[in-house]
Each structure stands twice: as C-alpha cells, then as structure tokens.
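Justification of resources, computational component.

The compute hours requested in this renewal are based largely on the per-chain cost of generating structure records like the one below. Each record pairs the submitted sequence with a full structure-token output. That output is archived, and it is also reused by downstream analysis tasks.
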Amino acid sequence: MMKKLLLLALAVPTVGLATELSPGTWQLTGGTTLGYSSTSTKIEGSKATDNSFGVETSCAYYLTPTLGLGLELSYNNTSSTAFDGTKSDQNAYFVGPKLALDLPVAPQIAIFGDVALGVAKGDIDGVTLDGWGFGLAGGVKYFFTRSVSADVGLQYRLLKVDGTFNGTTVSADSSDFRIGLALSVYLGNAAGH
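The structure output for this chain reads:
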C-alpha cells in the first residue's frame, strides 16, 4: 500500500494542469454579454431602464503560459426607456488590441483578466458617432479539456464617441458593467508542455 501511495505522489507533479497554456497557443473566443440598469426618481415615481445585449469574439496568441496578446471585436445593443416613456436604441461597435492574462488555480480552473483599448463606433437613433473605447474583464475559466474552456466573468466597458447631427455636435459617453459567458478554443501548443 505504501509503495502505491509513493508512486502516486511521484506521478502527480508530472501531470500538468489542463489550464496551463504553452507559449505559441492561440485562443479563439466567442461569447455574449447581458446588462440591465434601472434608475428611479422621486418625481411621481418615474423610472428609466436600460437593457443591453452584446456579442463578441476575440483571439489571443500566448507569449508565455499566462500572458497573451490579441484582438477583440464586439457589438452591443442597448434599448433605453427614459423617465417620460421615450424609447431609444443605441448600437455600439468596438475593435482593438487586447492583453490577456490567465492564472491556473486548479487542474481545470483558471482565473483570467483582459484589457482592451480600441476604436469605437456608435449609432444612437440614426446618428453615427465615432471615438474610442476601453474594456476590462475578469472571471473564471473551466477547462473541459486542454483545448476547450467555458468562461464566465464580469466586464466593464467605457465608450467615448461624438459626431454631428444637423450641424450640432453630439457627444456620448457610455460606461457599464455586464455579465459575460463565452466558449474558448485553444489551438497550436495548447496541449504541449
């Protein structure tokens, strides 16, 4: 019995974590984000709400087992209802480079963080706006295998865009928190150590 335990103890360190990525690994991710906000005032109990839905995709090339560089592309639609009942639709697009950080914490679990800075384009009820955006995300990855993970996290997005409508400058600053769910596939050296 003691020999079996000793062999098991020696074998465990040689079994790599499924979450360890080798340099040269490509991560391809596709996911969705959901957001909701509500604002109430004391003026006759009026209320404003925002509902948002987003789709995003990204890729990252891992330079080290924990650090990757890549590109992010996202689309977000927000439907708003103002205090007076007026409804509006806002669409936002974002593309830019991102920095990805993955830290293995268990055989099938890693925590992650992403930072992205890029170009943003918006459309608010037919008015086109251009500018820049910043994104920050963090969460947990569960690896089904060395090549596939489900990612759950919280995202913060800031967009600053402006444009012209009938000769008037229109500016919009948007920042929000969203819950994200994604699926990632790892190609290349994902299984190599």
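The chain has one domain: 35-187. The radius of gyration is 22 Å.
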